[in-house]
Design goal:
alpha/beta; Rossmann fold; 2 domains
C-alpha cells in the first residue's frame, strides 16, 4: 500500500496458519468454527501452493507493473480456485509491497485483502491438498503454523462416494488417504510441536469445546464460545460457495450419531478394501478394524470389481460428477473438503 507500512499485512504474515489434511476429513467444519472467532477468518480454498506457486516463473515478475497485473489477473481466472474468493484485483494490488514483492507476498496480499473488510487480524488458509506442500510452505513462512484435520478412512470414503463429485473407487480413495497419513507422519517428525498439530475429525465432533480450546492454544488465541455456534456464522464467513452442497452440513449443529454411518453405507467387501489400503495407519490413529482380512484371491477379485468401473469412467471423462472441486495434485482425482 502507498504511504505508511501495511501493518495489517504484517500481522497477517506473522499469524498465518494453514488447515490441511484429508479431503472429506473435517477441514470445512474446522474452518466454519474458526470463522466465528472474533479475530480469525478462513476464506474459501485457495489451493495457492498447488495452482499458483508452481506457475510463479511464468506468471510474471511481481517487481514490475506488468508482472503484477498478469499474476493478479490469473488469480481471478477460471483456472484458479482463488476466483471463488471474489476479490477485487485492485484490493489485492493495494496490499502488495511497493518494491521487491514475491509470490509469498502475493499470498499474504490476497489474504489481507480478504481480512480487511471483515475487520479480522488473523487469517488461515484451508486447502486440504496443501498437506503435500507443507515443507515448501514452511520455508516460505517461517512463522506459519499447520493444523492437519484427519478422519477415519471409512468415513472419508463413504462421504466422498455420497458427494456429487469424486472417485467411485473405494480402494483408490483409501490409498489416497494412506498417502495423506504418510505425509502427516513425516511432518510430525520434521516440524516442531509449536508449528504442527493434528486433530481427528471424530474428536472435533464428539468433544468440540475441548478440541477447539486446543486449537486456540496452538494458535495463541483465546477460545471464544461463539465457535460452538458455528452454524450461526454470517454469510460473509460461510467459507465456500453456497452451490457446494456437500458443505452445507456446516450450517447445522453437530450430529455425533452420524460418525459411523459408513457401517451402513459401505458393504463388508468395501470396508475390507479400505482397511487393507489404510494399512497400519488405521489402528495407529486409534481406529479399529471392522472387517476380516481378505484372502489373496478374494482381494484381487474385489479390487477388480471396485476399480474397473471407476477406470472406465476416468477414460470416458465421467468420473467427475456435476460441479466439483478442481483436480488435486495429490491424487490425480478430484478433491474436496468435509463439512
Amino acid at each position: 500500500m502507498s504511504g505508511a507500512p501495511n501493518r495489517l499485512g504484517g500481522a497477517i504474515r506473522d499469524g498465518l496458519f494453514f488447515v490441511v489434511g484429508n479431503h472429506r476429513g473435517g477441514t470445512t467444519l474446522l474452518q466454519s468454527m474458526l470463522n466465528t472467532h472474533p479475530a480469525i477468518t478462513v476464506p474459501p480454498e485457495t489451493q495457492y501452493f498447488q495452482e499458483v506457486w508452481p506457475k510463479r516463473e511464468t506468471l510474471g515478475d511481481l517487481a514490475t507493473p506488468a508482472g503484477r497485473e498478469q499474476a493478479i489477473a490469473f488469480l481471478g481466472s477460471v483456472d484458479c480456485s482463488i476466483r471463488d474468493l471474489k476479490l477485487d484485483p485492485a484490493a489485492i494490488a493495494a496490499e502488495l509491497p511497493e518494491t521487491g514483492a514475491d509470490y509469498a507476498d502475493l499470498l499474504v496480499a490476497l489474504l489481507t485483502a480478504w481480512a480487511r473488510p471483515r475487520q479480522k487480524t488473523r487469517v488461515g488458509d484451508k486447502s486440504p491438498g496443501h498437506i503435500h506442500c507443507v515443507p515448501e510452505m514452511a520455508r516460505c513462512f517461517p512463522k506459519a503454523r499447520f493444523i492437519a484435520s484427519l478422519r477415519d478412512p471409512r468415513g472419508v470414503v463413504s462421504s466422498e462416494l455420497g458427494a456429487v463429485w469424486g472417485a467411485r473407487s473405494v480402494d483408490q480413495i483409501g490409498r489416497r488417504w494412506r498417502r495423506v497419513i504418510d505425509e502427516h507422519r513425516e511432518l510430525e517428525r520434521s516440524l516442531p510441536p509449536h508449528r504442527y498439530m493434528m486433530l481427528r475429525y471424530e474428536d472435533l465432533v464428539t468433544d468440540p469445546e475441548s478440541t477447539l480450546r486446543g486449537v486456540c492454544e496452538f494458535l495463541g488465541e483465546d477460545f471464544d464460545p461463539a465457535m460452538l455456534r458455528y452454524y450461526e456464522r454470517p454469510g460473509s464467513e460461510l467459507g465456500f460457495d453456497p452451490s457446494e452442497s456437500w458443505k452445507l452440513n456446516t450450517l447445522r449443529p453437530l450430529d455425533p450419531g452420524r460418525l459411523e454411518a459408513w457401517r451402513e453405507k459401505l458393504s463388508p467387501i468395501q470396508i475390507a478394501l479400505i482397511e487393507r489400503a489404510a494399512g497400519e495407519h488405521l489402528e495407529g490413529l486409534g481406529y479399529t478394524r471392522a472387517a476380516p482380512a481378505l484372502g489373496a484371491a478374494a482381494l484381487l477379485l474385489a479390487r477388480l470389481r471396485d476399480r474397473v468401473p471407476w477406470a472406465l469412467e476416468v477414460i470416458s471423462g465421467a468420473a467427475v460428477r456435476k460441479r466439483g472441486p478442481r483436480r488435486s495434485r495429490d491424487s490425480g482425482a478430484v478433491g474436496g473438503s468435509e463439512p
